[in-house]
Specification:
eight-stranded mixed sheet, Metallo-beta-lactamase, Chain A, disordered C terminus, 15 strands, 20% helix, globular, 301 residues, alpha/beta
Length: 301
């Protein structure tokens, strides 16, 4: 996937979910069709280096695919939305951090020294036997500026979210299409919601936190830092996005429940899908008429 070879002619933006579950991994038979790993979303424009959003347990499986005898030099960037366990717990098990051939750049909206301190903490004793600072991968720690930054052909702009302890979403613009990632967000703060809608305007894909159903949220979970499919549909309509993808599924949500949620969401925003592992989405510009999403259904080997 992400190699230093830039000779590929494929100028599509590939979006793939390696972890779609919120809070904790769910290796349970009634949840595996959708996916049981915690958040890890991967984007790649053409043959450029990967951009990874969040380092949940899905990062481990991604690392297994990226480390092979054919690998020359692996380059990738990891964007952190925030540092709750479900968004960082895959990092110690990400094979490339132990490779001399990996060049990894880590990003968040925090100052670089704060980011380094936080990600190293979970791998310090007594939490983990091998400190991150002793791993051989070449890394840099970076603060994503409010105005955004460039990673290859991608423009990355942070988006403030409403979540305990703070969190950031990201809008990613490429020559092939645009994606906005709004996970770990609780609707209801008008100023933050308005700013998200402004950042989301016209995006080809909106990835949105649908951890709770509307009934669950109203009954028991206000203040927990998560949203619902209904608020995702409202945002999708307001921002006139191309497609809404419901993400960060509750660890209690079974595969049998999600089709009902999807059907309900489609009544309010027709072009809605459920985030699932192993189902890449490709975006490609169609002669200036906008990005055309094509769903490619394939399983990892």
């Amino acid at each position: 996937m992400s190699r230093t070879d830039q000779t590929g002619s494929d100028k599509r933006l590939k979006l793939e979910f390696w972890g779609v579950r919120g809070s904790i991994a769910t290796p349970e038979s009634d949840k595996l069709r959708t996916g049981g790993n915690t958040p890890c979303t991967v984007l790649q424009y053409g043959s450029e280096p990967l951009v990874i959003i969040d380092a949940g347990t899905g990062l481990r499986l991604l690392g297994r695919q990226l480390t092979s005898p054919e690998t020359d030099v692996l380059q990738a960037s990891i964007l952190f939305s925030h540092f709750h366990w479900d968004h960082i717990q895959g990092l110690p098990f990400f094979g490339p951090i132990y490779s001399h051939h990996a060049k990894l750049q880590l990003y968040s909206t925090l100052k670089a020294e704060s980011l380094q301190k936080i990600v190293e903490l979970q791998m310090n004793p007594p939490f983990f036997p091998l400190p991150l600072k002793n791993t051989p991968a070449v890394r840099s720690y970076n603060q994503t500026p409010t105005r955004g930054c460039k990673l290859g052909s991608l423009t990355i702009t942070p988006v403030r979210l409403s979540h305990p302890g703070g969190a950031s979403g990201y809008r990613l613009e490429s020559p092939a299409g645009s994606v906005i990632y709004v996970s770990d967000h609780e609707h209801g703060n008008a100023a933050i919601d308005d700013a998200i809608a402004e950042h989301a305007a016209g995006a080809d894909i909106l990835i949105y936190d649908a951890h709770f159903t509307p009934d669950e949220y109203e009954r028991s979970y206000k203040g927990w830092g998560h949203s619902t499919w209904r608020e995702g549909a409202r945002l999708a309509n307001r921002a006139a996005v191309g497609e809404l993808i419901l993400f960060h599924h509750s660890p209690d949500r079974t595969d049998r429940e999600l089709p009902t949620i999807l059907a309900d969401a489609r009544l309010e925003f027709a072009n809605t899908e459920i985030a699932r592992e192993n189902q890449p989405i490709l975006l490609a510009r169609d002669r200036g008429l906008g990005a055309q999403p094509v769903t490619v259904k394939q399983r990892r080997a």
